[in-house]
Design brief:
The chain is an alpha+beta fold and 330 residues long. Helix content is 25%, strand content 24%. It contains seven helices and ten strands. The strands form two sheets. Strands 3-7-8-10-9 form a five-stranded mixed β-barrel. Helix 1 crosses helix 5 and helix 2 crosses helix 5. The radius of gyration is 27 Å and the shape is globular.
Amino acid sequence: MDRESVFSLGLFGEDRSTTGQDSRGHLQQQLVDFILDFHLDTIYIYRDQIRENVLSKQYFCDVDIGHLIAYDEHLAHRLNNGPREIIPLFESALKICTQRIVYPSQKGIQLPEHQLLLHSTSNKISIRGMTADHVSRLVRIPGIAISASTLSSKATAVNVQCRNCQHTENITVTGGFTALSLPRTCSRARMPGDASDRCPLDPYFIVHEKSQFINQQLLKIQEAPDDVPVGEVPRHVMVCADRYLTNKVVPGTRCTIMGISDIYQAKSSGKSSSAGAAVAIRTPYVQAVGIQTDVDHTSKGGAIFTEEEEQEFLEMSRREDIYERIVDCI
């Protein structure tokens, strides 16, 4: 080598600042390929589902995890063990697929946020079987809904403004029972030589008309009586449902919840526990990503009959002695 030349050596072999972005982009492209390419026989299930839902102004897609396992087992494993990372990428992939399937000629169209719904036939986990090992993973729990709250508005993006300098900022809020703490200091970038006074502490207030909200509902799911061991009290767990999963169940409904097992800081009673002892204690809950019920309570009319039952009712209605038969049955 020439002594005047500069010799450099890369210690890591690649630029690590872009590795994470490339990995997320690669994952998202895999999810787009799954939605567009997966088919059974000659039916492209998720292409047809997205087209039908979007044309009826419903921006969601219900995915069977079994189909994802058959398409790419490694991708399904990542979804099961890291849903917080994969689900936002999956929902972004749904928007890309909607653009390609429904609006291929309209570039740059503004589409609403899409929601990913999941269902599976995998083994169920009982409520009392949920442990710390299941936190931040997908779980599938059966039970009975014993309460359902009214709909509330959950902020997903909060617009805040400084009272002193009118600086605005958007803060993203994650789903579930997460709370939001406003920044205590103004984050306005100051130019060199800026002699203006600094903003005081706690300068921000929320601009609700510029913030984004979604519907949210709280459910309480209890163990079914046949799943409770002899001599034990039924246990329950809180479930957080949002957007298209709200108003899916009513109290008394047997259902299976698929969601992300998570934890939150429950309100302490104050005198019953010291402040230091409750710092590391968290209460489990489930953020729903799919709800399966035995009866669809969203459909009008109540009872649902099969075609054979309807045919039997029709034949019975033609009998001349229908009144006598009903009286005899009573």
